[in-house]
Amino acid sequence: MTISEVAKYLDVDISTVRFYERKGLVTPARREDSKYRDYSEGDVMTLKRIMLYRKLDFSIEDIQTILSENADVHEMLVSRKKQLEAQEEQLLGSLALCEKMLDDNAGKDMEVDYYLSYVHEEEQKGRTFPDIVPALDRVADNMNMEKYVGLPFMPQLLQNAVARRIAALVAFAVLVVFPVICIVNNIMEIASGSGSIMKLIIWCVYGVMMISVFMRLIEKK
């Protein structure tokens, strides 16, 4: 099967199949006559397994381990169940915070410090809230850092979770924070009479493009 046929059969985007191939989770053979990838029944079954494990929110690294011959799938499922239960507790914490803010009729002028203090007090009681780290891990997974493996020290850095998260933060700063700052700065210049509407439009278009790139990075494949 061709990659387009596989994508249609599995009801996923071609980019998703390519992503899994790029990560080394599936390695289809190349046709001798055309050099195009030829996905076998085994490759399709592997992709189905990957999709199933992604529904369990396993990371790419975890799936690589599961697909290896020496993996203890039962043990990994037990571990994943514990992680999902912890995430459930975090979501319940977020739900409680959201309900409190709605009950207080919180708006743009809300007392941010008050709610952060509330979160801190609830955490002291044992309640948990979502962390930014999982989102950074998704960005790091989708950034295809392997293409930089030829650079000095990169193989070691690619295996370092902290370094990968720092790279994800840099991506966030470049793709989201920088355009937003420039847009706000242009609005302030226009308000003071020294700005340019055309320049603001250009920055807005650029900002939308960069933020859309970042959103694609943070999406789960």
UniProtKB/TrEMBL annotation:
Domain of life: Bacteria
Signal peptide bounds: none
Pfam families registered for this protein in UniProt: MerR_1
Entry-linked InterPro entries: DNA-bd_dom_put_sf, MerR-type_HTH_dom, MerR_fam
Domain HTH merR-type: residue ranges: 1-69
UniProt-recorded Gene Ontology molecular function terms: DNA binding; DNA-binding transcription factor activity
Keywords: DNA-binding, Membrane, Repressor, Transcription, Transcription regulation, Transmembrane, Transmembrane helix
Ranges that cross the membrane: 166-188, 200-218
Xref: PANTHER family: MERR-FAMILY TRANSCRIPTIONAL REGULATOR, REDOX-CYCLING DRUG-SENSING TRANSCRIPTIONAL ACTIVATOR SOXR
Full protein name: DNA-binding transcriptional regulator, MerR family
Species of provenance: Butyrivibrio fibrisolvens
Lineage of origin: Bacteria, Bacillati, Bacillota, Clostridia, Lachnospirales
